[in-house]
Amino acid sequence: xxxxxxxxxxxxxxxxxxxxxxxxxxxxxxxxxxxxxxxxxxxxxxxxxxxxxxxxxxxxxxxxxxxxxxxxxxxxxxxxxxxxxxxxxxxxxxxxxxxxxxxxxxxxxxxxxxxxxxxxxxxxxxxxxxxxxxxxxxxxxxxxxxxxxxxxxxxxxxxxxxxxxxxxxxxxxxxxxxxxxxxxxxxxxxxxxxxxxxxxxxxxxxxxxxxxxxxxxxxxxxxxxxxxxxxxxxxxxxxxxxxxxxxxxxxxxxxxxxxxxxxxxxxxxxxxxxxxxxxxxxxxxxxxxxxxxxxxxxxxxxxxxxxxxxxxxxxxxxxxxxxxxxxxxxxxxxxxxxxxxxxx
Length: 344
What we know:
The protein is mainly α and 344 residues long. The chain has 12 helices and no strands. Helix 3 (36-74) packs antiparallel against helix 4 (77-105).
């Protein structure tokens, strides 16, 4: 009997060594895989990227809010809707800018105040997805204004536009609820690191990917394509002198789409790869380190988007002023939802 029991134990041991369980393999790989070199590199890189981003973003977004507030005071109906949307986008970008100093400092402190850490993480991700939804809605509203001017003109009063922006804020705040569980059941953690296993569960991850990025990117891509198509089909641009302005509008739409994709696609690809890591689909240490580096790099450079949006603000304000000086509808009406020029 003793010999038979020893043979049975040895057989089980060999089976475990050949086919390690998912949980045991995950623990061994995680314990033996260090991310200190990645975190050290990113700490240095964040200082080089986030400090100028913070300074430029703070100044430029405050100027954008002030500039569009000036147009709101003029009470010109053709500019009000666009101004409200642009102020809303600038506020989201400003929140992201204000969260950057804390994003650089808090990861250097182990187990900071849970409430304060959660607050900073909320501000950061709310500002990111608030910008995503606002840019998406601007593209949708612009396309509808070109395609269905009479219908949209009835829905673009200042009160309704402000109400839409309030709905966007409610959506992103509601979507931030999972952030409160980021560090649940984690004894030692750092802000923006060491997320709990529940954070990377399918019920949290896939709604974030689909509704937070894939759906807005699809809507923006379709609306941008249709808006450019409408502008190209308006007139014979080889003979129309206004084609120069329309071509600028087309380039602005295309540039906004490219900036959106470049800013947010790598981040959500990094989220997907990290989801595979945390759910046991990827085990090799070097691959995990590369994914961690890629995700942190993507988040770092996506923050520059809060400064890139300023180019959009600049062109809109420039078009507004040209329209006011010339006492004619501005070509910003073609690019940023103003409906009057779509009837001509």
